[in-house]
């Protein structure tokens, strides 16, 4: 596990809440083992399941929270993909679910009918979906929505294709065959990726659409979860795939710069993800997508949502859910950790709104 807690300059520009809004402690190091502020010791065992997109961050947050903040709270987060996470949440086999696609009205109705009370959903972090390859010479290769769509449709089959060459006049492109790699499981990362292409490329919207699972073109390689796609990239010469930025970072993969709405080729950095997230107007129901990103923003970006219920928990588990996610959202070291892994924490105003929504967990009991 990572133990570094170095401050990132870019995070200094993001206002932090002065204190946690629940029992999760202050914005200090939380190392007193008393909920971060000398408060109540909690005891609970929680299970969550869903997206692999935020899994590197969630695992480190869980480790740090259990080690330094609430030793009595055990959290088992299963990285099974967004589709399975939503399914397990609706089946009530986990305490909380996780996905890069919010629950729509059909899902919310199903949740209420099954549980007998309404579900709660809220975003917890922003992240980038990058186009990655196992060839350092291609780091910074410029692509746009049209070329990415043509690659995954089988129209572009080599890195020196004229469409790619036109975007990269100063690069000596290899003639290597491109092997596109995609998620083979129900995936929020696929949703973010396909939503971006559907928004930007009309024929992609008509042919493939958007969703957690797609009917892909023939000849592509599939991989389970983000790490499976990363493996597919490294194990196939010419491999190209879409993964969360943190997985590309961990695997040492080269990544493309993507042309955004203003025609700017943008490298997937933390700053660029923050810039993209700042363009979003988040409604009261927290159902939103990150579209038409311009300026210095990276255009293939999304959020991760957490799902809980307003009833049905033992109070100890409800307290632990609220405490953990309040700490993860507001504690300075937790927010720094998100930045170190390439995820963008929520801004101050949105964090306040999210914590208020989170506190509805078990409120109908």
From TrEMBL:
Write the record's keywords in alphabetical order, separated by commas.
Phosphate transport, Signal, Transport
Write the signal peptide boundaries.
1-20
Q: Which CDD domains does the UniProt record give? A: PBP2_PstS
InterPro entries assigned to the protein according to its UniProt record, in alphabetical order: ABC_phos-bd_PstS, PBP_domain, Phosphate-bind_PstS
Top-rank taxon of the source lineage equals: Bacteria
- Every copy of the PBP domain together lies at 39-332
Q: Which family does it belong to?
A: Belongs to the PstS family.
Record-given protein name: Phosphate-binding protein
In its UniProt entry, the species of origin is given as Nocardiopsis lambiniae
């Amino acid at each position: 596990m990572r133990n570094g807690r170095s401050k990132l300059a870019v995070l200094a520009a993001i206002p932090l809440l002065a204190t946690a809004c629940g029992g999760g402690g202050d914005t200090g190091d939380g190392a007193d083992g008393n909920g971060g502020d000398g408060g109540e010791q909690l005891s609970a065992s929680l299970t969550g399941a869903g997206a692999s997109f935020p899994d590197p961050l969630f695992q480190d947050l869980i480790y740090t929270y259990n080690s330094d903040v609430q030793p009595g709270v055990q959290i088992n987060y299963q990285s099974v993909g967004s589709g399975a996470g939503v399914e397990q949440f609706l089946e009530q086999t986990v305490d909380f679910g996780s996905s890069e696609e919010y629950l729509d009205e059909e899902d919310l109705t199903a949740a209420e009918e099954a549980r007998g009370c309404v579900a709660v959903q809220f975003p917890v972090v922003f992240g980038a979906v990058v186009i990655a390859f196992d060839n350092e010479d291609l780091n910074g290769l410029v692509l746009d929505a049209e070329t990415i769509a043509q690659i995954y449709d089988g129209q572009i089959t080599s890195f020196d294709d004229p469409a790619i060459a036109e975007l990269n006049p100063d690069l000596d492109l290899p003639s290597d065959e491109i092997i596109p790699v995609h998620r083979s499981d129900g995936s929020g990362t696929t949703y973010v990726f396909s939503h971006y292409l559907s928004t930007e490329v009309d024929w992609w919207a008509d042919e493939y659409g958007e969703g957690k699972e797609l009917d892909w073109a023939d000849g592509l390689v599939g991989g389970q979860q983000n790490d499976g796609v990363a493996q597919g990239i490294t194990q196939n010469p010419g491999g190209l795939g879409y993964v969360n930025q943190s997985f590309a970072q961990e695997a040492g993969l080269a990544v493309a710069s993507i042309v955004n709405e203003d025609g700017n080729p943008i490298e997937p950095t933390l700053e660029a993800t923050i810039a993209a997230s700042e363009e979003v107007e988040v409604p009261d129901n927290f159902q939103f997508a990150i579209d038409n990103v311009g300026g210095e923003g990276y255009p293939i970006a999304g959020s991760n949502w957490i799902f809980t219920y307003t009833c049905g928990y033992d109070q100890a588990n409800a307290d632990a859910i609220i405490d953990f996610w309040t700490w993860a959202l507001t504690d300075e070291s937790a927010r720094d950790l998100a930045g170190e892994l390439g995820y963008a924490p929520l801004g101050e105003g949105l964090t306040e709104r999210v914590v208020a929504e989170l506190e509805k967990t078990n409120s109908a009991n």
